[in-house]
Amino acid sequence: MVVHQHRRGRAGRAAVAVGLALAVAALSGCGGDAVAGDDGRSAAGGGAGDDGRASGDPAATVRAAADALARTGSAQARTAMEMATGGTRVTIRGEGGVDFKNRMGQLLVMLPDDAKGKAEHRPITELLVPGALYMKNRGAGVPADKWVRVDTTALADGNLVTGGATDPMAAAELLRGAQEVTYVGETEVGGTKVRHYRGTTDIARAAAQASPAVKGALEAAAKGFGKDAVPFDAYLDSEGLLRKVRHRFTYVNDGVIDVSSTTLLYGFGTPVTVVLPAERDIYAGKIAD
Questions:
Q1: What is the Cα–Cα distance from 196 to 234, expressed in whole angstroms?
Q2: Which one of 65, 151, 203, 274 counts the least CB within 10 Å of its CB?
Q3: How many Cβ atoms are within 10 Å of 112's Cβ, its own excluded?
Q4: What pTM value is reported for the model?
Q5: What pLDDT is stored for residue 116 in this prediction?
Q6: pLDDT band at 289 (very low <50, low <70, confident <90, very high)
Q7: Is the distance from CB of 13 to CB of 154 less than 8 angstroms?
Q8: pLDDT digits (tens, 9 = 90+) for 67-103
Q9: Separation CA 178–CA 171 (nearest Å)
Q10: CA–CA dist 151, 154 (Å, integer)
Q11: Contact 173, 66 (CB under 8 A)
Q12: C-alpha pair distances (Å), 2 with each of 32, 180, 214, 241, 260
């Protein structure tokens, strides 16, 4: 794993204070599984063309992934966020759907079991909309029938790690800052042939090119994490659709925490409906850490 040291400060505090605290607190007694969507195949084999190489500029191909998703409309998604600190790993998983055209999504995020294999927390329902994250079953003193609304443009990580799942829209938009991209080879994801690209992306550069719906959150992340490059692996099909992407973040919060966030996309065109909670159902009280 490539490790980039980021500035100590708001990014780590925001992640712990809002969502990741639930999982980070479990690090002493939980273990993680393989990251969702990792098919385990080597991607160093034959390429997309007769000469074993993908045609065109690899960086330009990856940067265009977000636009391709917007054109296709929607998709189902599975996410996995693996955190490592002090030699211990824990994985948070999510599943749901994303409307890339209307910039909305819904995920059911499952926190890991305790050391005895028992669920410590009910799954968290997350609604993803421009500039905001809604969470239900948040815990930490929030009534079970209430939602928590978080302004993602005020989060120092822009919700790249806070919710326990990187917003699939943000994951794709991050690739707009791709640089130093190399074509690794052809492999398969979910039975579909894909081209594997590896490189780094700069959050500030991505924010400057991002769509309006994600721009504010990525600008916040650029300030919170600093301008260091974020390593990624991206897998695109023959139509340029992003089938899988893995980003590797590092932040400092009472120690270095490495985060590997993977998003798997499939079922393109599947209708996705997101219904926002009524104002009366949004919790306005204090949230305990």
A1: 6
A2: 151
A3: 24
A4: 0.82
A5: 46
A6: low
A7: no
A8: 999 999 999 999 999 988 777 788 999 999 999 999 9
A9: 12
A10: 5
A11: yes
A12: 19, 15, 26, 26, 10
Determine contact, residues 196/169, Cβ cutoff 8 Å: no
The rounded percent of the chain whose pLDDT value lies above 90 is 57
In angstroms, the CA 261 to CA 249 distance is 8
At 138, phi and psi to the nearest 5? -65, -30
pLDDT band at 1 (very low <50, low <70, confident <90, very high): very low
- Residues comprising the chain, all counted: 289
| Three-state secondary structure readout of the chain | CCCCCCCCCHHHHHHHHHHHHHHHCCCCCCCCCCCCCCCCCCCCCCCCCCCCCCCCCHHHHHHCHHHHHHHHCEEEEEEEEEEEECCEEEEEEEEEEEECCCCEEEEEEECCECCCCCECCCCEEEEEECCEEEEECCCCCCCCCCEEEEEHHHCCCCCCCCCCCCCHHHHHHHHHHEEEEEEEEEEEECCEEEEEEEEEEEHHHHHHHCCHHHHHHHHHHHHHHCCCEEEEEEEECCCCCEEEEEEEEEEECCCEEEEEEEEEEECCCCCCCCCCCCHHHECCCCCCC
**Side-chain-side CA neighbours of residue 159 (13 Å):** 29
Dist CA 119 CA 139 (whole Å): 13
80-84, 270-274, 281-285: range with lowest mean pLDDT: 281-285
Both tokens of residue 25?
Answer: 């607190």
- Give the separation between CA 241 and CA 65, rounded to whole angstroms: 6
Question: Are 76 and 263 in contact, with CB atoms under 8 Å apart?
Answer: no
